[in-house]
Amino acid sequence: QVQLVESGGGTVQAGSSLRLSCAASGYSYSRHFCMAWFRQAPGNEREGIGEIEFDGSAPYTNSVKGRFTISRDNAKNTLYLLIDSLKPEDAAMYYCAADQGVGPGCGPYNYWGQGTQVTVSS
User: Which of 13, 29, 39, 113 could form an SS bridge with 92, CB 3.0 to 4.6 Å?
Assistant: First the structure.
């Protein structure tokens, strides 16, 4: 059973940077595996930010938007999301998700973390 735990959220000033973490456990290294970041603000639909697909070799980023950078620390089994130049509209609950389907490609994501809240002060 894949388990995901996000951390790193908080209240930050507009214009600053923030790095979120997602610690993963319970997945098989030998199988196809994807991890992704999503966010959801009150009253809005959940929005995908980016994902990384692993096929047992080097990971690559399928899609990353503008000010967001996704990276992974293999030794720590942790996925990161770096958000640069934070804006008030970046305030949301940020979620990490995982998919250990057969691939190729990623999704649907059937494992989710509890989320970490990001608040941006202007």
Answer: 39
